[in-house]
Design brief:
The structure is a homodimer. Chain A is an alpha/beta fold and about 350 residues long. Chain A has 13 helices and twelve strands. In chain A, β11 and β12 form a beta hairpin.
Chain lengths: ~350, ~350
């Protein structure tokens, strides 16, 4: 298996990407190809004392200032565009990039293409909750969704949770403002009916509507929502965790006796903080693309690049793209097919 | 000033409501009238050793099983319907209820009526963040919103933050998936323009788009959003706080040395937990109704009923209903006015 890495993507590129790659090659035993400014990347590899990782030269870099919707087309020789092109040509099994989310999504859609029949790819992070984590699909790729998109997200999330997260019978919930079927707006009502039908036919394990409080409660494995709401949920989670960690720090530094008590708890608290870190779980899968593409966090360090590569390996091994392809007929609405 | 209390609303009614009322009468020096099953309420008052609070008999109770949209009309002699009728008739200055949110919202809209020109009332809780708290408007009253609703929410939230939360120049942000003006869907783009214009005219202090991470960051005082997204944000916040408190408890009970260290921190941690408790701030104001109506949490205890009464008193004293009425012309869209 060969994982293609966008060596120039992210705030700490190429150093962190190279470090993560070196570690992944060693610990996971996969082949890696690093795409980026050859000289720089080779310098980093040398600093790591590792000369046997393949490097493919790409002369441009997509920055946060580039327009995401045209970046990969305009900068054809950027590390991201070249990486995606290589994946599309079969010169590797998956792409991992910590670069611009929008550019990666557009580039993957245009170059690698969506799975036939899938209307939109989704950004689907796994939140660090419960035994297996909780998949949130979509979390920002599609701010406006049709009922068919959401139906497809439910199926794709279910396959992912089963094959990659290790849930036996993933509990799929529709994010809403209450658990009763009549909650929410017209869109939620229509999607509820579609998911209920898919559940009754035994294709997914639909548990009904779920609320914001349920995401971290352990009662749901896949949370289906539009990209706008999902993004707000994800970022609120990040914000609240940060806020609470700050408040906790305030308690620990309040007095000498508190400082001493906190010192005793330090390691276990660090462990707890780590267990809530989205970066530990890996990157965010672009689900619905015809080959595995993983977006690592923009601020990725070695550890998160490594986690994203491990996730890419699991994605390749999972066979979920075949699952989606085989079930595509159940995932389409007849009324929209005839359009 | 006289506050009308729905004595039968909430999980712990009438006991907690009566206790909160007795405390409020004593500490805030306001008149209270308790509406509910007279015999029961008087029994509770007797148990509290307090006989001088007015009780108005109401023979019915709205339960969680009643349909919110018809409850106050069908149960005309329910404690909630009678309380709202009294407010409408001028027999008190504000209503506080811990009963069904939907029934209270519908009842207030039909009986007390909206402020003239206001399209929809909003549920606007104050999240316990930053110096003054952060107002989230709307958080569930309107799952589907027009741009005019959101414009009105921005103005109303700004008045509330200034007069009740004590922010000098409340920073109003539009909840979105990124801070750039082009983020989000069509609705966000249109509302952004409207709020920008209101900001340029000096009517509100519009700081642009804000994300989920910003809500608890201290950079915004009023977060404007539709009721669907706001509800998800609010409940996610609750869920994450609960999850983290659980994880923290796990750390504290992990070993004997941890237990001993946690004992030292106990009081300060309790204080911290309290500072994050939505119930401490008060109830949720129904902003846009022509007289103050406060929804207390369904699981309210004495302390949260007291906080909700204190909030109602501040609401009455604030004069924000006059502020809204005086500014109503700026809060309406001409295109919709002609409809």
């Amino acid at each position: 298996m060969k994982i293609i890495l966008d060596a120039m993507g992210g705030d700490n590129a190429p150093e962190s990407v190279v470090k993560g790659a070196v570690r992944a090659k060693k610990e996971l035993g996969v082949d890696i190809v690093l795409v980026g400014l050859e000289e720089k990347v080779k310098e980093c590899l040398k600093a790591e004392g590792c000369g046997d990782i393949e490097v493919v030269n790409a002369t441009e870099i997509i920055t946060m200032n580039d327009d995401p919707s045209t970046a990969t087309r305009r900068k054809k020789d950027s590390s991201m565009a070249v990486a995606l092109k290589m994946l599309s040509n079969g010169e590797g099994d998956a792409v991992v990039s910590a670069g611009s989310t929008g550019a990666l999504l557009t580039g993957a859609t245009l170059t690698v293409k969506r799975i036939k029949g899938i209307r939109r790819a989704a950004m689907a992070p796994v939140l660090p909750a419960g035994e297996h984590g909780v998949m949130l699909i979509d979390c920002g790729a599609n701010v406006e969704c049709t009922e068919e998109y959401l139906l497809q997200f439910a199926y794709m999330g279910s396959f992912y949770a089963k094959k990659i997260m290790g849930c036996d019978n993933p509990r799929v919930g529709l994010l809403n403002v209450g658990t009763e079927p009549e909650k929410g707006g017209e869109m939620q009502h229509r999607v509820f009916e579609l998911l209920k039908e898919a559940g009754e036919k035994g294709r997914i394990n639909f548990i009904g509507n779920v609320e914001g409080t349920d995401v971290f409660s352990g009662r749901v494995d896949v949370v289906v929502t539009d990209g706008f709401t999902g993004n707000v949920l994800l970022k609120t989670t990040e914000g609240v965790i940060k806020y609470m960690m700050g408040a906790l720090k305030g308690v620990f530094y309040k007095s000498t006796k508190n400082k001493l008590a906190a010192a005793v708890l330090k390691n276990d608290l660090k462990e707890m903080k780590k267990s809530m870190d989205v970066n530990e779980v890996g990157g965010t899968a672009l689900v619905g693309i015809s080959k595995p593409v993983i977006k690592a966090h923009g601020s990725s360090d070695e550890r998160s690049i490594f986690a994203a590569i491990r996730q890419a390996v699991n994605f390749v091994n999972s066979g979920i793209i075949a699952d989606i392809t085989e079930n595509i007929d159940h995932m389409r609405l007849k009324s929209e097919e005839t359009l």
